[in-house]
Design a protein that fits this description.
By secondary structure, this protein is an alpha+beta fold. The chain is built from 2 helices and 5 strands; from the N terminus they run βααββββ. A hairpin with a 4-residue loop joins β3 and β4. The longest helix is centred in the middle third of the chain and has 18 residues, at 29-46.
């Protein structure tokens, strides 16, 4: 079964803000961050059960090069990304 991948408004905001932050610190780094995130989005879409479920039905995919985690959940035939979270941040 193929699962459509979609980003919540919160995940889109996380992604844009993170890319802008990286871009402000080094030219081209924001683009590299987006490319890595898109690579993981593709992995999640192609093999959604590869990533372990941590809490309830939420799964986590770690973007190792940037220390980010993509939090997603399969809802019916859709794989929804809820957050693209910097693991260096305080979760509160």
């Amino acid at each position: 079964m193929i699962y459509h991948l979609s980003l919540s408004a919160n995940a889109e905001t996380d992604l844009i803000e993170s890319a802008l932050w990286y871009r402000s610190h080094k030219s081209g780094l924001g683009k590299k961050f987006i490319q890595q995130a898109e690579l993981y989005f593709l992995r999640i879409q192609n093999n959604p059960f590869h990533f372990p479920a941590k809490k309830r039905n939420f799964s986590e995919a770690f973007i190792r090069k940037f220390s980010y985690v993509i939090i997603h959940e399969i809802i019916e035939s859709e794989n929804v990304v809820f957050s693209v979270f910097n693991t260096s941040q305080n979760p509160q």
